Amino acid sequence: MLRHKKILLGVTGSIAAYKAAHLVRLLVKAEAEVQVILTTSASGFITPLTLATLSKRPVLTEFVKNESGEWNNHVELGLWADAMVIAPASANTVAKMANGFCDNLLTACYLSARCPVFVAPAMDLDMYRHPAVSANFDKLKNYGNYIIEAGFGELASGLVGQGRLAEPEEIVEMLYQHFTDLHIA
């Protein structure tokens, strides 16, 4: 059910960004077209080369492609996608999305997207439970976005609790279910 679906995958700055490689691989295996947008902070955790190799497309990071004035059109990207997935979604990006801040290519695409948006957060348990972050999740849900709840387990900080990025298989299953439900309806 993901065959030929256009998935815009946003990867943000989180130690869980390494899981984006597996997520891209699963989406491509399901015959989806995957366009990755990597935030500047995410590139400290995973390289554009890794994600470009797996997605078979250049990874986008900035509005401007090169010195010639060529640019990555966030409106076209937002219209191109059948679904947008932000995985991992950092607390910073969740706050930007919830409050309409648009200082990078990913958040500009989010604000331009007409497709369903799936947000898979990853952050330390105290951040995940903070009232400000909870309020931002509520805003995103009220806007019609889907929140893929973080998992429970050992976190990069050494603490144990909720905050782990959902497993890539879970994220793909949610997308599959979404498109299956649309097909049935």
UniProtKB/TrEMBL annotation:
Classification via Gene3D superfamilies: Flavin prenyltransferase-like
Annotated Flavoprotein domain residues: 5-178
Domain of life: Bacteria
Pfam families linked: Flavoprotein (PF02441)
SUPFAM superfamilies, per database record: Homo-oligomeric flavin-containing Cys decarboxylases, HFCD
Membrane-crossing residue ranges in chain numbering: none
Signal peptide span: none
Record's protein name: Flavoprotein
